[in-house]
Design goal:
Layout (H helix, E strand, L loop, with lengths): L1 H13 L3 H10 L13 H8 L1 H29 L5 H17 L12 H8 L4 H13 L7 H18 L4 H17 L1 H8 L5
Helix pairs in contact: 1-4, 1-5, 2-3, 2-4, 3-4, 4-5, 4-6, 5-6, 5-9, 7-8, 8-9
């Protein structure tokens, strides 16, 4: 029961639709009706500018960091019947799913890039840093954000595997990568058709 409650709390933390709230408060705009219709920081930047986008990014990262950090602290106190790596991976994925499929917006959320980086920052710091690094390195080659985001998602489990992280963490990172690719399916179609910007 305690495990279910902690997972649910993590999901709800990730579910806070920050991009929607910020653009609504700052610009009076429903972000879902403009640009790509996505509530993530990339669309927020297109619609509401850099300041709103940065605020959205910070909150989206925090939505991943917070439940994981709290869970790291509480793990020994909760006396759960599951190992720590599995537990933390479940918490991370729950936060990401909350962001991607927020119940506050009829289960239509963001693409999970910032929340994924936040969720795995303390679980797999080097793979997360590698994901961030590849995102910025690719900026030299392409201005298309979706390419950089997908590469970030792929780098996370790849580096976990190369660095021989515990299987539970590597599998969690792989699930996060798959979720990120699923959320970018429309972008992938546009990339194939040479229509992505």
């Amino acid at each position: 029961m305690i495990l279910i409650i902690t997972i649910l709390i993590s999901f709800l933390c990730g579910s806070i639709p920050s991009g929607y709230i910020i653009t609504k408060k700052m610009c009076g705009i429903d972000i879902r009706t403009v640009g790509s219709g996505n509530i993530g920081s990339t669309n927020v930047k297109r619609v509401a500018g850099s300041k709103a986008s940065i605020i959205t990014q910070i909150i989206d990262v925090a939505k991943g960091v917070t439940p994981v950090v709290v869970s790291i602290y509480l793990y020994d106190k909760l006396a759960l019947q599951v190992d720590k790596d599995t537990f933390l991976s479940m918490i991370a994925i729950s936060a990401i799913l909350g962001h991607n499929y927020t119940p506050f917006l009829k289960f239509k959320g963001g693409k999970g890039v910032n929340t994924t980086l936040g969720a795995f920052f303390f679980i797999a710091p080097i793979p997360t840093a590698a994901g961030i690094a590849i995102h910025f390195l690719l900026k030299v080659i392409t201005s298309i954000v979706s390419i950089r985001s997908i590469a970030t998602g792929i780098m996370l489990p790849l580096m976990c595997y190369i660095l021989q992280f515990p299987m539970a963490i590597t599998n969690g990172a792989l699930i996060a990568c798959v979720l990120m690719i699923i959320r970018h399916k429309d972008n992938i179609v546009r990339l194939i058709n040479n229509q992505e910007i």
